[in-house]
Design a protein that fits this description.
alpha/beta, D-Maltodextrin-Binding Protein, domain 2, six-stranded mixed sheet
Length: 312
């Protein structure tokens, strides 16, 4: 019986990339054995290592916690490396992914948006969908606002989501909050009907607040996050695409989503509410990317590190 339990525990740990799953007999961190390397230099810069660039200002994709870089992108990068028989080395490259790839600082970059085209960077299929959405309380069966009745929609002040709300439903619909934690607290108490947010950041914030939510509609075109590789590195592109298909198909990406977001995000078939075109004097993204950038990064710092064979 004990041997059977040990086998089950080890299998679960391997599938979940050494996440902190309680109940195992050892307190030590588990590192699954590496397979044979599937790719070698010059397709990658260092033998046996996949060097991965992330932006630690883009929580919950990447941030700093427990004196390490952690986040969704870190876990997915570790899973990709493991699938390729490589160790993973995480580097904070900030916002200049193209420069990091061109200078050879990293082999791949995470957190690239599928909607953004770059002549110098190849984009993989997405590993995580996103877009500005309206969240409702789970099980509320809240109807998508039509304009006949003005809904109460909480959104972080001066954010892209707040701008999307006013352009789709008018200024009277917007309930500005200082942070998403307050917005989801208000939703939980019934003080507002919806919360508008980037889908990934919103799911993360709701999960931290322990507020079960569901996506009611999209307020812009759905996009997603993908892996970026240098345009001319076709060998690495093929390897990354194959590895991504594998970890998506075997459920590892789903485990990572569940850990950080409380569940998987699906935007397929979600109704889109058209927003008006921006006015001529609009201020661009109006805080795009700022949702949760301070409070949620701080919360991320309290999360457990889930990378597997990270060598950083």
């Amino acid at each position: 019986m004990m041997k059977k339990m040990a086998r089950v525990c080890a299998a679960a740990l391997a599938a979940a990339l050494a996440f902190a799953l309680g109940g195992c007999s050892s307190q030590e961190e588990y590192f699954p054995p590496l397979g044979d390397p599937q790719i070698t230099p010059p397709a990658i810069g260092q033998e046996g290592v996949l060097r991965v660039g992330v932006n630690t200002e883009k929580s919950p994709l990447a941030g700093r916690g427990s004196e390490k870089i952690i986040g969704i992108d870190v876990d997915i990068a570790a899973a990709l490396a493991d699938q390729l028989g490589l160790k993973v080395q995480i580097e904070d490259i900030g916002t200049d992914a193209g420069k990091a790839l061109e200078e050879g600082t990293v082999d791949v970059v995470m957190g690239q948006e599928t909607a953004e085209e770059d002549d110098a960077i190849w984009h993989s299929p997405q590993y995580l969908p996103t877009g500005v959405v309206l969240f409702a309380k789970e099980g509320s069966n809240a109807a998508v606002p039509t304009g006949a009745v003005t809904p109460k929609i909480a959104a972080q002040i001066s954010s892209k989501s707040a701008w999307a709300v006013t352009n789709a439903f008018g200024e009277d619909a917007l309930v500005s909050t200082n942070d998403l934690a307050t917005a989801f607290s208000d939703l939980s108490k019934g003080d507002v009907d919806f919360v508008a947010s980037d889908a990934v950041i919103g799911m993360y914030a709701a999960n931290l607040q322990d507020v079960p939510v569901e996506i009611a509609c999209l307020l812009d075109t759905a996009s997603g996050y993908c892996v970026g590789v240098k345009k001319d590195d076709t060998e690495l592109q093929k390897a990354i695409q194959g590895a991504l298909e594998a970890i998506t198909g075997n459920g590892v990406v789903g485990v990572i989503e569940d850990k950080w977001l409380g569940g998987a995000i699906s935007l397929e078939g979600v109704q889109k509410v058209e927003a008006k075109a921006p006015a001529a004097d609009a201020n661009g993204a109006e805080g795009e990317g700022s949702e949760g950038s301070e409070e949620e990064d701080a919360e991320a710092s309290n999360s457990s590190d889930a990378s597997t064979n990270a060598s950083n």
